Amino acid sequence: MVPIGLISLLPDFDARGRDGNQGVEAFRGRIEAMGLRPREPGSSTPSIPQARVRALDGPREGDLLAAFVSGPGGSQTVADYRVGQEVVVTITAGPAGTEPFVAVSDRWRTPALQALGLAFAAAVGLLGGWHGIRALLALALTIAVILKILLPLLILGVPPVPLLSSERAA
């Protein structure tokens, strides 16, 4: 338990925000309205589904955004969202001088995944006893080290396996 607490006290090695380029911003939103984007006159392209989405968290909390609707993997044909449904909204920065691309990417699945994770932990604790609890703590520590230390350092360009110098002391 103590090593997990120590991992959380480490400085954040994450490179986002240092150069002002954050890539993709994702947050939870609720669909307020659905519709189709009007087609260009004389265009043969199909109408594109759009939604008005209210941001529920993050720096844009409370904002109402116009977003393209896409299903998992960007498919627009399987996107069957409803008004009032909580979804994942992504904002991708466009090229300089253009508007960012706002999209409804997927359903908000966090509550269901949390319940599934708690059920799994309870089953491991009941069936495995003290060994199961220790295994869960080791798993949590491993995930914390990977997410808090290893991945951010790899993104910064630190070599994953430091190699010894080819020169040997004589």
Strand and helix layout:
Elements: H1 2-9, E1 24-37, E2 48-55, E3 64-69, E4 86-92, E5 101-107, H2 110-156
Parallel strand pairs: 3-5
Antiparallel strand pairs: 1-2, 1-4, 2-3, 4-5
Helix pairs in contact: 1-2
User: How many distinct beta strands?
Assistant: 5
The overall pLDDT, averaged over residues, is: 80
CATH structural fold name of the largest domain: OB fold (Dihydrolipoamide Acetyltransferase, E2P)
Strand share of the residues? 15-25%
Please state the overall shape, judged from the principal axes of the Cα atoms.
extended
Question: Number of helix segments?
Answer: 2
Oligomer: single chain
Which structural class is indicated by helix and strand composition? alpha+beta
CATH class of the largest domain: Mainly Beta
Spans where pLDDT lies below 50 across 5 or more residues: none
Q: Number of folding domains?
A: 2
Written as H for each helix and E for each strand, in order along the chain, the element string is HEEEEEH
CATH architecture of the largest domain: Beta Barrel
- As a whole number of angstroms, the C-alpha radius of gyration is 22 Å
Main beta-sheet annotation: 5 strands, mixed, barrel
Helix content: 25-40%
**Terminus-to-terminus distance:** 45 Å
Q: In what order do the strands lie side by side in the largest sheet?
A: 1-2-3-5-4
